[in-house]
Amino acid sequence: MSNALKVLVIEDEPKIIEILQTYMEREGYQVSVLSDGADAVEVIKQTEPEFIILDLMLPNKDGFTICKEVRQFSTVPIIMLTARVDEIDRLMGLEFGADDYVCKPFSPREVVARMRTIMRRMEASLHKEEELAYQGVTLNVDRFQCQVGGQLVELTPVEFRLLQTLLARPGVVHSRELLMKVCYVDERVVSTRTIDSHVKNLRSKLSNAMHGKDLLHSIYGVGYKLE
């Protein structure tokens, strides 16, 4: 069985596809290609790539929309490709959930270098004691501890996984569906109201520890974010 990194390139320009696929395969990656945005999300769900190279401008569904939809169920690393200078400020904010961006024209070496940087960062986090921190809230994943202002806050396992997911991407909205998938690793069937209840309890514990400050925000019809 191959241990090659599974990369999905979603791009509609044949020349760019050829350049990226040839270079990446030479570097030892297992590359799949998709040239239309319409079925991208479904293909990602079915094939579960380990890295995605996603063009901003695609037929039938743009890269922004695809990225936002993917972030509802997956944290797979995503690099966006763009030729639109007017979108660079938005891309730099990466508020839609991408990990990095590359402007066209580019060399395939640059794209692979960015990929390796992201992968090294992910691998490094696996080999050290994982700790997430934001606005005075600190989560030590290995010790299963939550501290607010240096004081321990007792959380249930579901609340802990919920906070861990939100802390990993502050400011990013997480759908209820993704939170259910993350919080219930045994894949039991629960309703969105169950997640709402856990969020309510978590918000109360954090707010009490922070003397009324509220970091957990609900986005109507979408989900929750920490900000």
UniProtKB/TrEMBL annotation:
Any one GO molecular function term: transcription cis-regulatory region binding
SMART domains according to UniProt: REC, Trans_reg_C
Ranges of the DNA-binding region feature: 129-227
Protein keywords: DNA-binding, Phosphoprotein, Transcription, Transcription regulation, Two-component regulatory system
Domain Response regulatory: 6-119
Gene Ontology CC annotation, any one: protein-DNA complex
Residue ranges annotated for the OmpR/PhoB-type domain, each copy included: 129-227
Residues that bear 4-aspartylphosphate: D55
Lineage: superkingdom: Bacteria
Protein's recorded name: Response regulator
Annotated source species: Reinekea thalattae
One GO-annotated biological process of the protein: regulation of DNA-templated transcription
InterPro entries the record matches: CheY-like_superfamily (IPR011006), OmpR/PhoB-type_DNA-bd (IPR001867), Sig_transdc_resp-reg_C-effctor (IPR016032), Sig_transdc_resp-reg_receiver (IPR001789), WalR-like (IPR039420), WH-like_DNA-bd_sf (IPR036388)
Pfam families, A to Z: Response_reg, Trans_reg_C
